[in-house]
Automatic annotation (TrEMBL):
It comes from the Bacteria. This is Lysophospholipid acyltransferase family protein. PANTHER family: LIPID A BIOSYNTHESIS LAUROYL ACYLTRANSFERASE, LIPID A BIOSYNTHESIS LAUROYLTRANSFERASE. It is found in: Cell inner membrane. InterPro entries: LipA_acyltrans. One of its GO terms (molecular function) is acyltransferase activity. It comes from Limnobacter profundi.
Length: 291
């Protein structure tokens, strides 16, 4: 059944752009309404996150954000079929780098960390950047082996990319960066207390990995944020200037500074940030569970 659904998914992506956009948008809209009504647990996760991060917003605004988020989540998920199909022309046409001159930062002698917060277009940014440069990134294994294999193959489709599982540790990652590969790193998920500190995210304590600060200091690497927006079937990538004066002397302070930057980008694109993730699942000692 999984293989059949994947075949249908990739067949949909081969349609001409107008037909694909119409059908995939309709499917996403219908499923978004059904999931908002039926998927109670995930709906409550999104609404809880939005309530914590935007306490001054109305419940009606948060519902609108949550419904839009689920739609964008499904819509960008469907787009992974054409991102992973291997058609470079399609990817170049539908994923635009707003400021390609930003890639000139790679000419620096310093190693580079591409800081990619969890906006829903992050896979589009990865695939598009893979057409320009060879990178290294880390991934978490999926429970479904067919889906896990599909993701790895899709993300390796262009160039000579190095994908490392979190179980492989940091040594091969450091070796790749020392040889000149930029690291494409997703910094804002709750992986528990290990290698994390509790710092504010929109005023709420969130377990946040300190890897960006530690790697930046260890390798004297520049941290270059990359953000992505989806609109009308296409994506735009913005390559920001390197974070100034980063890292600070203290890992916790550096990680807090990183979160403040992420907050500023989220405010500009609230529905397309990953609100379905239990970002505040791990709590400081003595605090009650949120979800």
């Amino acid at each position: 059944m999984t293989q059949f659904l994947i075949s249908m998914w990739f067949a949909l992506a081969r349609l001409p752009f107008f037909a694909y956009r119409l059908i995939s948008s309709s499917i996403s809209m219908l499923l978004a309404m059904l999931l908002f009504a039926l998927a109670r647990e995930r709906r409550m996760v999104a609404l809880t996150n939005l309530s914590l991060c935007f306490p001054d917003s109305s419940i009606f605004q948060r519902i609108r954000w949550a419904m839009a988020h689920i739609y964008f989540y499904l819509r960008t998920f469907l787009d992974r079929a054409w991102l992973w199909s291997g058609n470079q022309k399609v990817v170049r046409d539908r994923v635009r780098i707003e400021n390609p001159e930003g890639l000139a930062i790679l000419d620096s002698a310093s190693p580079t960390i591409f800081l990619a917060p969890h906006f829903l277009g992050l896979d589009a940014a990865w695939s598009r950047l893979c057409l320009e440069i060879d990178m290294v990134t880390m991934y978490s294994n999926q429970k479904n082996p067919v889906l896990n294999s599909l993701i790895l193959q899709g993300r390796s489709k262009f160039g000579d990319q190095l994908l490392l599982s979190r179980q492989q540790g940091v040594r091969p990652l450091l070796a790749a960066m020392k040889k000149g590969r930029p690291l494409y790193y997703l910094p804002d998920m709750d992986f528990g207390e290990r290698d994390s500190v509790f710092v504010d995210f929109f005023g709420v304590k969130a377990a946040t990995v300190t890897a960006v600060a530690r790697l930046s200091r260890l390798l004297q690497a520049q941290v270059v944020p990359v953000t992505t927006k989806y609109s009308k079937g296409r994506y735009s990538i913005h390559i920001h200037a390197p974070l100034p004066n980063f890292p600070l002397d203290d890992d916790a302070e550096s990680t807090q500074l990183m979160n403040h930057h992420i907050e500023s980008w989220v405010k500009d694109n609230i529905p397309q940030y990953l609100w379905l993730h239990k970002r505040f699942k791990t709590r400081p000692a003595g605090e009650s569970r949120i979800y």
